[in-house]
């Protein structure tokens, strides 16, 4: 990875972080950082792309994929959050960091997420900077990204439509992709990042110093995303608030947590009222 591209992207991401932080102070709602998260990767990708003298075909493919993924996710989160006030997660962080949270939130929330995003974006820098011809791992990457986008976007849309129906208020979503995984959207997100890592592998090549000194370093990105989705901000955090609700324990016993697959029990689960 080119250090100058990395530092330029970091600078722009920090400037954008400060801008959104100012908006959050005015709105008294730091939840807007969730809509900003995926846009950090557009900044990293576009910055690196236009720093190349002659961007490769791989670079163009990766840039397009990043923009499609990031814009869709940001719009989805913005629409979902619109009019609901500050998310309870950030309300807890706000309460635990008083007094002066509005100032502390600059580095606790916005700068912190920008730095994490920069680390996660490592495969994007590598893939966009690479000049080698397309190969098998590029095909693997495209397949992983495509399947991941299908799961993430379809699951998000299914859940959005389910919640928009007043008749479903207080019920558990157990149809569509949610019949086979309790978190099919997170599963899709995970595949997308392993896809981006595969682009980095393809760009560096699978032998020699390029693999050891370059591509393997970027594996930290999909590992971080997988851990975040499974252990921290994803499955564990969400299910800690859901598993105590009536009906959800049965859903947990009959449906895979992450990787979609056949239900463990043959008896279908009906949508049950929850608190």
Summarize the structure.
The chain is mostly helical.
Describe this protein's structure.
It is a single chain. The protein is an all-alpha fold. The protein folds into two domains: 1-131, no CATH class; 133-261. The chain is built from twelve helices and no strands. It has helices spanning 3-27, 32-50, 57-81, 88-96, 101-120, 122-129, 136-164, 184-204, 208-213, 220-231, 235-242, 248-254. The longest helix has 29 residues, at 136-164. The radius of gyration is 20 Å and the shape is globular. The termini are far apart. Residues 207-213 and 264-275 have low confidence and may be disordered.
Radius of gyration: 20 Å
Strand content: under 5%
What pattern of helices and strands is seen along the backbone?
Answer: HHHHHHHHHHHH
Distance between the termini: 50 Å
Total domains: 2
The helix content, as a percent range, equals 55-70%
Major sheet summary line: none
Low-confidence stretches: 207-213, 264-275
Oligomer: single chain
Mean pLDDT: 87
The chain-level structural class is mainly alpha
Give the overall form: globular
List the helices and strands and how they pair.
Layout: H1 3-27, H2 32-50, H3 57-81, H4 88-96, H5 101-120, H6 122-129, H7 136-164, H8 184-204, H9 208-213, H10 220-231, H11 235-242, H12 248-254
Keywords:
275 residues; mainly alpha; 2 domains; 12 helices; 0% strand; globular; disordered C terminus
